[in-house]
Amino acid sequence: HRIVFQSIEESGCRYMVEIDPKTLNTLADAFALFRQDPLFQLQVKIRRHRAAELRTLLANPEAIDLEMFNREVWQLESYTSCNGQDITGRIYSASLSDTQSISPEEIATFDAAIDEDRFSFHGNAIWGSGTRIYGAPLKHAEEVKLENVRQALRILNDVSLTPSERTELIDEIPGFGYNIASGLVMVYHPEEFGLYNAPPRRVLDEIQLPNSTLEKFQESLDSLRRALGADDYLELDWFLYLIHAGMLDVKMQPRFWWVNQGGTYKYERDAGYIWAPATSRIGRSVSHHQAVRNLHPGDVIFHYSQGAVLAVSQVRSTYVDAPRPSQASELRWETEGYLVETDYSDLDQPIPLQDIPLSWRAVDNGPFTRNGTVKQGYLFPVTYQFAERLGAIRADDMPDYVPRGTIEQRVWMFQANPAQFDLEARLAEVNDDPTSESNLEEWKVTRYRAQMQVGDTALIWQSGPYAGIYAVAEISDTFFDRPVAGGTENQVEHSAELRFTSVLPRPITRDSLREHPVLKDLQILRISQGTNFPVTSEQWNALQPLLTRHQNEIPTYEPPAFDQIRTAIAEEGLRITDDRLRQYHLALTTSRFVILAGNSGTGKSWLAQAYAQAVAAEAQVVPVAPNWNTNEDLLGYFNPFDNTYHDTQFSTFLRRAASEFEHAANVGVRARPFHLILDEMNLARVEYYFARFLSAMELTSRDERGFIELSPDERLILPGNLYFVGTVNIDETTHAFADKIYDRAQLIELDAPRDLIVEHLGDADYTPALLEIWDAVQQSAPFNFRVINQMRDYIREAEELEVPWETALDEQVLHKVLPKINGTEPHVGETLRNLMELTRARFPLSYTKVQGMHERFSQHGFTSYF
To answer: Which of 28, 119, 366, 374 could form a disulfide with 114 if both were Cys (CB 3.0 to 4.6 A apart)?
Structure first.
């Protein structure tokens, strides 16, 4: 019942790879659809077009310089134009991004432009790299890096070597690895050799084809290409990548999914379904919503809400077109969508996110970011291995259709002696490709060999004056004996093969571990002689937060799409018009200084904090005091008598932002944003306490580097990931802004339109009456969301004491609304007359007070609450 596909190498060596016929039929159907899709075929055409250009460009290695190599080869795409118009990122993002799309007419235009030489693409068009430049983490001179590049290209052009030999030799050059090595070889031999990296290997895993070595991978890929009839590996590789990314629905077996439900969990669970909108509010398809269409009966879903996996379900049916459920009417989703029925099984003990080990989450794709946090989105696929591990966490609590794996894991410390081994230079060679052979290292094992096993975690420690944990690895292969360096012929030492999984931007130092209440007892701190040391479960649990923080210091930040931001803010309960939110989003995108103005209670601080959370920014709220008049009030100061800098809340925040920006720049990734929120920033004169930043901003606006001087010997660059948001109330207690502030800032005024007030109040019994009060006082004493929330809470608690809502609302008008009415303007008298009519029959407490205030206004031309 299995089909055997045979292939013959150029050398005449014959090999065979087996593939299940049902799997082949499924793949063949998907491949036919892939070939019918104009966008996918355009992408394949670009790959072939670009491969031909690169073969010409790279034919003379000595003519290549680093800038050209980084622009034309190292990056997936650095610049693309069609008919002279910049279209960088559009063509590939159209199939992989939630926010990009290309019309059939544009596809036809781009396709014709390639044939007519009106299309220009810069980059390799085939594989991605972890950095934008070659050798970013290498501590080598530029001339050494250039020689490395040219050496790789000389190997690539050596016709005496087979494709596999070229790949192996290029992989050995520092900074390369199997990803780019095999990619370059595929460019030169698109009909003989395939790209060897994680996406195609994971698809081969799913269809049970061998790929553990480069040779086995190429054998499997060759058999699959022949079976499907792919013209070359450029086409087959893109087909496999789209399967891996979830863009092609290829169902081999029950698949596993992760759904982020948030506030929708309860009613979706009670009714037994999941639902997602067909398009965003601006009419675009979103991949994590479209994924609902890929669910099939028997698929398994892990349901995540409120920071934990609360339930598991099994899909009952394929999706149906269905309108938005009535329970979700408060969410700003489009009406049409997709619904899938599924049988929920509650977990007696939910699985908090922190109980899922970081190493399981910190992988490419899926529902997690590369630093292990949950992505903003709805439905994502997860691997069988992840499902198996999650099943093991709550083995007795999981339904039978969830596989059970094993989570037993031992942790060890492996020590390097800097006098014998240059650990930092070795770690500089580690790359982002988990399959890369350059991430492997043989390590001596002197103790605990009998307790160690493949899969155990290895923490890499360096001894000496800069002792600490520098990296994380795993024991990746069986143990073996090797000759002792410098020993006799018969001397051997026990060894293990380690695979580096992450390199820390900064080591976790020995001194910081000694100060930790649990980690101070690490064996390596008490008895430092040796190579291998055990780490207890308690110590490992204490270490993981430290590792997470250090690993996250240089995250690969990916800003969410605007639709995702809008959805996240709506789920926070913040009421804001789409126009105002869009203005704020664009202001922060194009400027680093935004001022939010408006009456008290309109949600200025709430918006600043909710937006920062939605974009995964680090946020710090700093209340401005009226007595601030120097830079030191905001930044702290240096005391020359004790030779110490006395930090403030903000200067500490500034240091973190600058450090993360510098580290991210060093490795060629985008740093996550830091949002400083200056609350009521005009209580003091901004140009006094904010002067240094205004000057630094002026320099950065001219593409110069702006610095913040903290002391005579310390100054920080104004980091490009730091954004300033000021909230201001415009009244008699605040200072006006100087023109230099307006010149550097984007000013956005927030209000509370009546329709949002209505939406915020909902259908409570007191809503009509409260709206009448709101309408009556809006001209003289407007009140907004904060006051409404306080009034709503007061009424709810009063009703718990069996107090009628009318009485509670009367008291709240007296407490919260009337004290704000004062002045001599004619509209004050009009407001009081309107309130007398509204309160006369229903709200006696308020009526009595309003009557007295109106009499004072009539007699003296002025009134106030007291």
So the answer is: 119
Q: Residue 605 — φ and ψ, nearest 5°? A: -65, -35
Give, rounded to a whole angstrom, the gap between the first and last alpha carbons of the chain.
Answer: 92
Q: Which residue has the higher pLDDT, 228 or 93?
A: 228
Q: Which residue has the higher pLDDT, 215 or 31?
A: 31
The confidence score (pLDDT) of residue 32 equals: 93
- DSSP class of residue 863 equals B
What the block records as the tokens of 525 is 């701190």
The total of other beta-carbon atoms located within 10 Å of residue 45's CB is 17
Nearest to 44 by CA among 111, 89, 104: 111
Rounded-to-5 percentages of helix, strand, coil across the chain: 45, 20, 35
Q: Are 743 and 697 in contact (CB under 8 A)?
A: no
With vertex at residue 283, the alpha carbon angle to CA 281 and CA 284, rounded to the nearest 5 degrees, is 105
Q: Are 614 and 584 in contact (CB under 8 A)?
A: no
d(CA 426, CA 415): 14
Question: Residue 172 — left, alpha, or beta (φ > 0 → left; ψ -120 to 50 → alpha)?
Answer: alpha
The pTM score is: 0.39
What is the pLDDT at residue 203? 86
In contact, 126 and 186? CB cutoff 8 Å: yes
- Cβ 303 vs Cβ 344: under 8 Å: yes
**In contact, 722 and 674? CB cutoff 8 Å:** yes
Residue 620 β-bridge partners: 676
Beta pairing class for 722-728 and 674-679? parallel
